[in-house]
Amino acid sequence: MWNKSILLVEDDEGIREMTELYLKSRGFSVATVEDGEAALEYIGRSIPDLILLDVELPGKNGFEICKIIRKSLSIPIIFLSVRSGIFDKVYCFEIGGDDYITKPFKFMELEARIYANLRRYYEKSPRNLITCGPLIINLDQYNCFVNGKKINLSKKEMEILIYLAKHRDRVWSQEQLYEKIWGIDGTSNLNTIKVHISNLRQKLEPNPTKPQFIKTVRGFGYKFCGKSVPF
Q1: Contact 110, 212 (CB under 8 A)
Q2: Fewer CB under 10 Å: which end of the chain, C or N?
Q3: What are phi and psi for residue 149, nearest 5 degrees?
């Protein structure tokens, strides 16, 4: 259960290194960054299971970073801060934070808070997501994101994407896809699939001419590629 990944966003080198060492000794996978922009860049590549977010960061502070993260992700965020005022703590929860720990803190308390938040998210409300690198498909909310940015898809585009993603690396002909999505024989409507696949690539792919998610298998059809992980 606790083989989970944590992103630690902390500009104080001493706190960052000591916290990383302790959490790794407790079995967590830990990545560290020094500021908010680096945190957002990291999340664009890999979604952690929990974020420890310092409030006093250079550039955008922790509160600002939390607001950006909450536009696209639902993962536990625990704030770390020297600020002990009640208004900061209340504001933390107003913007979507899950917990607030005042520095200096005891590692045992930090660990207990991490466990509590992981249990709340992953035991009671497990995520129903499919991820592939920067692409996240939320099956509950019926939407998707690329690099943290919400992508607006039509109903049929979303249905095609979800169907392909659920059957990673399986090749589907245009006829099969039309029958699965529209529920009728698609022999006379093959161009419809081509158009929808083209639209999906334009919206999802950084370079639609060299797709990394939905690839064409010449002479056979299409398949969804990459590391696809349902939660």
Answers
A1: no
A2: N
A3: -100, 130
